[in-house]
């Protein structure tokens, strides 16, 4: 599923992806990170910038402020070097 999502993003030529994360994959993996498995995969493998928005729950301190992770596409960085 997550591989297919990244392939479709590339096929459609999207300029950015905005997705949510509940962080269940991070809990299962015992990761300290806040991203679930699908959003983590997309951040590292999609060809465009990926914005992951996650609302903190009570166990994260309950500040009420959304947690946002942004990753610029490495393709754009390589293109600017050349």
Automatic annotation (TrEMBL):
<dbReference type="Pfam" id="PF00582">
    <property type="entry name" value="Usp"/>
</dbReference>
<dbReference type="InterPro" id="IPR006016">
    <property type="entry name" value="UspA"/>
</dbReference>
<protein>
    <recommendedName>
        <fullName>UspA domain-containing protein</fullName>
    </recommendedName>
</protein>
<dbReference type="InterPro" id="IPR014729">
    <property type="entry name" value="Rossmann-like_a/b/a_fold"/>
</dbReference>
<dbReference type="InterPro" id="IPR044162">
    <property type="entry name" value="PHOS32/34"/>
</dbReference>
<feature type="domain" description="UspA">
    <location>
        <begin position="2"/>
        <end position="54"/>
    </location>
</feature>
<feature type="region of interest" description="Disordered">
    <location>
        <begin position="56"/>
        <end position="82"/>
    </location>
</feature>
């Amino acid at each position: 599923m997550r591989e297919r999502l990244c392939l479709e993003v590339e096929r459609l030529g999207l300029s950015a992806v905005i997705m949510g994360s509940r962080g269940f994959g991070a809990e299962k993996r015992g990761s300290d990170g806040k991203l679930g498995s699908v959003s983590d995969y997309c951040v590292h493998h999609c060809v465009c910038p990926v914005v992951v928005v996650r609302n903190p729950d009570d166990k994260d301190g309950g500040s009420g402020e959304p947690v946002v992770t942004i990753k610029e596409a490495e393709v754009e960085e390589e293109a600017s070097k050349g």
